[in-house]
Amino acid sequence: MADPKTGIVRERGHHLEGKTLSGKVLVFPSGKASSAVQMDGLVKLLLNNKAPAAMIVKDVEPVLVGSAVLTRIPLVDRLETDPFEAIRSGDFVKVDADNGIVTLTRGESP
Fold first, then answer.
1. Per residue in 72-95, pLDDT tens?
2. What is the C-alpha to C-alpha distance for residues 32 and 80, in angstroms, rounded to an integer?
């Protein structure tokens, strides 16, 4: 996933390779790898102040929910609109996980 000290995606060939997750809203289809990897990765990012600001997941599983709760990273899923169709890189995205609301503004974040 991402380097825990820098927050930069290091997975070769990944479309986010070389970009930071730190402070960004991360949009992804589902969790990947084992539960320990997901939990450990998010905790290490958090401990280094490089965690994503929030996560929008199309198909979430219990381990990822537990990881979000443990790290206090807001997470939403099952949005009415497909996030992969609605959100583009560079958009400003605000996530209100308590109410399941995502607000989108086109263009670079302010």
1. 999 999 888 899 899 988 899 999
2. 23
